[in-house]
Amino acid sequence: MRHVGFYWTRPVFWASFRQLDPSPEIAAGQSRTIRYQRALVRQWAGRVGAEIVEEVVAMEIAPDRASPALLGDLERALGIAAQKAARLVLVDFADAHGWRRHGPLWDRLAREDHALISPEPLDLEGAVFDPVEHFRSWRRACDAHIATRPEHRALILAALQDLETLALPAQAEALNRAGFRTFTGRIWTADNLRKFVRIHG
To answer: Is the pTM of this model over 0.85?
Structure first.
């Protein structure tokens, strides 16, 4: 049976992970989650004698909620599957571990024939990738980052004290040159600096 692999992940704004290359090969190098799904699907295909005729990767726009953003890439994957007389295959993290499903994604998949693979620990380039521990680790890292918000705010306010004579665009440029970023990892602009100062200044 022919299949199209569909692999998706979420952004991590504070780590400046906001974009995913459309090439599955490159995306697998950008995201361990994508790399894991790709390897698991390929392992499954070898075990059951399936052929992976194409692969599609996608990224959510929200780090912590379900949005319709994935549906464009999902429709593209379903279109490819239809053209190639194949069915979609993806890893079902939610079913295996009782996690909340991605509503828009699963609502759309309910109308299509597809194959689901349960996640399991997998040797990934010499190291065991445990999806449960991976997502728990990311949650701990996110919580730790959130806890540093007051420290980050104080650091930026202290840096701005030395830039008081400059206009906002020049202040933003100076912060960027010094290696400072917003709390979500973005570069400073006059607009987001104005908002920061209005809230915290």
So the answer is: no
Burial of 13 (0-12, 13-18, 19+ CB in 10 A): middle
Please tell me the distance from the alpha carbon of residue 159 to that of residue 183, in angstroms, as a whole number: 14
| Owner of token pair 């973005």 | 186
The CA distance from 37 to 35, in Å, is 6
Q: How many CA atoms are closer than 13 Å to the CA of 22, on its beta-carbon side?
A: 5
> Is the CB of residue 113 less than 8 Å from the CB of residue 85?
no
Q: Which residue, 113, 98, 91, is CA-closest to 39? A: 91
3-state secondary structure 102-142: CHHHHHHHCCCCEEEECCCCEEECCEEECHHHHHHHHHHHH
pLDDT given at position 45 = 97
pLDDT recorded at residue 191: 95
Averaged pLDDT score across all residues of the chain: 92
Position of tokens 């990767």?
A: 57
- Both tokens of residue 70? 């994935």
**169, pLDDT greater than 80:** yes
CB count within 10 Å of CB 111 equals 8
Residues 6+ apart with CB under 8 A from 120: 40, 131
pLDDT digits over 116-155, tens only? 999 999 998 888 999 888 878 878 888 898 899 999 999 9
